[in-house]
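TICKET #2291
ISSUE: user wants both folds in one file
ATTACHMENT 1:
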Amino acid sequence: MSDQYIVPAQTRIGHVHLKVSDIEKSLEFYRDLLGFKVMAVYGTQAAFISAGGYHHHIGLNTWHSKGLPPAPVNTVGLYHTAILYPTRKDLAVIFDRLRRAYYPITGASDHGVSQAIYLNDPDGNGVELYWDRPMDQWPQKPDGSIEMFTAALDLEDLLTEVES
């Protein structure tokens, strides 16, 4: 094709739907630990959860995965689901919550454009909890493109947001 289509700027990722082994275990993570609201549950087969009352941001189902082990790490598939928090303080609050629950994190990075906490859900699905810096603070290369990187996130500094 000679004409390149460009997706409209207002386009958003509406939701992610995850195959899980146990709905209740997943709800304990997404609802009880991360704080999502349950919008609908279909027995032990599916649940739909949301932030702010949207019909669902995350769908969880056991249709093809009930009782099964996590997918192998070294295969194709979803790398992680990224959950964007509105403020750095919100990211700090959820990090503090994870820390107090002794929930294991797998990483914490400053990407220049964002700051992120990484962890896995009970089925080994990757989860990124992050906050975007304002666009006017994103680092840029000399050619004007953004310069993303991965550096260690200062978690002690992040936690100072909880106190403010």
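ATTACHMENT 2:
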Amino acid sequence: MQTSKPIDLKGLPVAGGKFPLICTPLVGRTLDRLLAELDVVLPKKPDVLEWRVDFFDPIGDTTAVIAAALAIKSRCGSIPLLFTRRSTLEGGERIPLNEGQVLALYEAMCESKTIDLIDYELANELPNIVRVCTAAKTHDIRLVLSFHNFSFTPGLETLTQKFLSAEQLGADVAKVAVMPRDLDDVLTLLTATRAASKKLRIPLISMSMGPLGAVTRMMGGVFGSSLSFAVGAAASAPGQVPIEDLNTALAILQKSMGGNNVNDVLGP
């Protein structure tokens, strides 16, 4: 039984079905800084770009946000753009918007079709999740529902359920990111990833954060994680490794496992 599931856009797998994908964050606070980041990141050939809009100073100006997304898309070409506002509770920046205003921004971004994927947090109220899900599906934008815990790693059953909840709520991709306190926590995250990959019909993304969790960014694909985040110009979360190092690690891993792609060697 094949348990790995590539992320797709409009029915086609991203990067030709590469597994896992490598995503680099953009965290510039102005449009000029975002474009300068792209000048650094794009030569490193990421598979996906994540724009962490909570870092963007004009986040309160929807017109400016859409214009910035257009500018990013014009530079990155066919590379998919993931749009993310991470809340302060989930490790994000403080922003001058309430949740209602964030939802309106999300709806505007989906309607503008300047993005390919959008991330929203499972910790939000159910009506808000439904609203984002509706906007994403109406405009054919892939929805990532994510769970973060920057304090500790919940138990195996809880983590597995988070993945399942994302699927049940209409996600196209389920994401879990947690902070380990020891290597046992790292193993718990990988075990939950493997268990969920056998149950979910959608792709999933998982990682342990911080130095202890760095191994999951390199090995997560073996357990079913469809994407790993790596530093292109600046990190957006603790434990991210440079894209060059991640590419090297994945190449060694894939060669050692006897395939050109982790997806080729995953089994039941």
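RESOLUTION: both attachments delivered.
EXTRA DETAIL ON ATTACHMENT 2: The radius of gyration is 17 Å.
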